[in-house]
Amino acid sequence: MAVASIKVSETPLVLYALRRADDALILGHRLSEWCGHAPMLEEDMALANMGLDLLGQARELYSYAAKVEGKGNDEDKFAYLRDVRQYRNLLLLEQPNGDFARTIVRQFFYAALADLYWRAMMQSKDATLAAIAAKSEKESAYHVRHCAEWMVRLGDGTDESHRRAQTAIDDLWSYTGEMFAVDDSERGLIDAGIAVDSAAFHSQWIKTVTDVASEATLALPDNDWMQQGGRSGRHSEHLGHLLSELQSMQRTFPGATW
Amino acid sequence: MVSAAINDADLRRRAWNAASQVVDPEIPVLTIADLGVLRDVAVSDGRVEVAITPTYSGCPAMNMIALEIELALERAGIHKPKIRTVLSPAWTTDWLSDDGRRKLREYGIAPPIAASSRRALFGEQQVACPQCGSDNTERLSEFGSTSCKALWRCKSCREPFDYFKCH
Predict the structure, then answer these.
(1) Are residues B100 and B73 in the same domain?
(2) Between vectors from CA A126 to CA A121 and to CA A132, what angle results, nearest 5°?
(3) Which domain holds residue A64?
């Protein structure tokens, strides 16, 4: 690799924005991997559209993190010049696409929270975060509805689609707990009315997921052991591979533009 | 001082006129003024600053629109304008002008309807066909050719059509 990673001064607000930006970028990138491969044309467009929404959210959040940090970093440097351990996204979102059912389950788990989360964020005392939330909230509403419809189609579809959706739920479930974990760095921002407390949405999220799973004739696992680490940079082996593709151009030809 | 103020007002008016003619590259019948993307034109020290707001977070047309505004102003003799993106208040389809909605329909895109059912997980809306006006329509896909559109089909005239999503 020809170019070194940047240093980031992770004050609580910078870290907070980066975590959400990384969530959006990594999940958006995963969705972009489907482009040209989805099971049908409409779904190819839907996955790309959702990926584009997430990429847009990521760009705004990175730009804001750069402004708050004030150290000369920008959206591109955050995306292209941080190493795996500097990424702060949820483990759930870096998990490989797998089959279509796994992609939909992953998206549904995330969107069911994102929808609640961004709506609450619109009340943030931080005007930029509130404005970013006002856009993201509308987009998430489409995402969660789209995924919920697919959950039902897959779960209550054929034996094969049911089996695949159920397998995806069972495999991804242990990554969902991290979405509701709040550390000290975020606690201060939550108390100040800037950040949103994701833990407060756990029961509402469980209800949405339970309702949809039940409509889809799918079962939610009863294990409550949850995997954590993404928020502090301890990732699964999958993120490094994703980043090596996402970053290869800027790492090989630093500052390349076209 | 008085003449400077008049000059600024004149410059602002000329800049607004030029910027408001810029069209959305994906929906070329709509100007950015129709869309509500053009938020403000300000003049300070003889320098023009144009404020625009993004429609969708990831809308790739925004970069193009900013470039087009710059070109339109340069063509109007207004040099080196500054284009600023404002996020707040967030753009909504409610800002589409009546004129814009009419132009959309004539272009074959159904304009956005009120989003009372947007929150329903499995909600269905009714969108009138922009070709024949029939309410007998169905949604093919909630995600269409651009981030702002969904794909629908009219069951009366059998024509597929784009629906400008409520946002």
Answers:
(1) no
(2) 55
(3) 12-219+229-252
